[in-house]
Amino acid sequence: MCNGKLVPAHTVASLIEYSHRAVSAMAGLLSIASFVAFLRYGKSRRDLQLFSLLTLIFVIIQGIMGAFAVVFSQSSAVMALHFGFALIAFASSLMMALGIRQEVRHGGLERLNKYPRVSKNFRNLVWFSTIYTYLVVYTGAFVSHTDSAGGCSGFPLCNGQIVPELSGGVAVAFAHRVAAASLVVVIAILGHYAYRKHPDNKELRALGVLSVVLILLQVLIGFGMMLTISRPEVYMFVALAHMLDIAVLFGILTYMSFLVYKLHRPADRF
Question: For 187-190, which contacts have Cβ atoms below 8 Å and span 24 or more sequence positions?
Answer without folding.
Answer: 187/129, 187/133, 187/211, 187/212, 187/215, 187/249, 188/212, 188/215, 189/125, 190/125, 190/126, 190/129
